Amino acid sequence: MTRGKIAVVLKEKTLVSVEFNGDMYVENGHGTQVLDELKNINTEQEYRDFVQAFDSENFNYATESKRNGENYFDNKWYTNGVREVVGEEENQLCDFCNNYFDKWFSDYVYLKNIHDDYVDIVCTIEEDGKEFNDVPVRIEPNGVVVLNFGTLVEKYSTGYEVLSRIEEIKENEEFDGCWYLATDGVIIKNTSSGKEYYITEVDECTQDHIIEEIRQGYVNGAIYNAYAPDFETD
Questions:
Q1: Is residue 232 part of a domain?
Q2: CA–CA separation, 77 vs 102, rounded Å?
Q3: What domain range includes position 180?
């Protein structure tokens, strides 16, 4: 059973639908309808109307579904299938990598930016068969992104920019296979676990400083702590 949520970002809040359970993938699923409708949604009311219409057409939670004695579609968390998220909780929603199941849980999230400024999220991207976590992605006004368990599905997403895309990774043997250079940052690889950490938004001066410290052998403390605090030393 493929689950999905539909969400829109406004100026001061994010609206998130209940989780729809069943066929919420894109190809030959309800995701195609969601994407088609999101293209035409530009206001909060249009979004709310769509959530109700989508439910009525495909799931009918509003009249039939109950959970723990409460209506699944209309309860203390959701009003007509929609929950408002504001403040710090809204900021946390933008991170699709950490604690994903506590915040979103669904297989798919369909997200549109419907206010007049860009929205930044953090998610996983796939590049040449590899996954990179904690990558910043900017959603333009009217942009729509599709995420599958926190991974950006670029095939179906529009109006966005990956702010730190890996274009070329070159292994430098001088660093014993642990350090890699990318066009816009540095990748640290733990040779024991194989886990990779991508340092984003590193300017040329900072990158040169990191490389020089690596060459001098200062890698066990300052580099890990300052630039990759979660890095697990071998």
A1: no
A2: 15
A3: 169-227
Which amino acid is it at 211?
Answer: I
Find residue 6's DSSP bridge partners: 110
**In this structure, are residues 137 and 117 in contact, taking their beta carbons and an 8 Å threshold?**
no
DSSP 103: H
Which of 162, 177, 195 is the C-terminal boundary of a domain? 162
Torsion of CA 58, 141, 9, 162, to 10 degrees: 90
Residue 5 token pair: 């949520």
- Rg (the chain; Cα; Å): 21
Q: Between 31-38 and 44-58, two packed helices, what is the crossing angle to 10 degrees?
A: 160
Give how many domains the chain has, as a whole number.
2
**pTM of the predicted model over 0.90:** no
pLDDT tens digit string along 162-204? Answer: 876 544 333 433 333 444 444 445 555 544 445 555 555 455 5
DSSP, collapsed to helix, strand or coil, labels residue 27 as coil
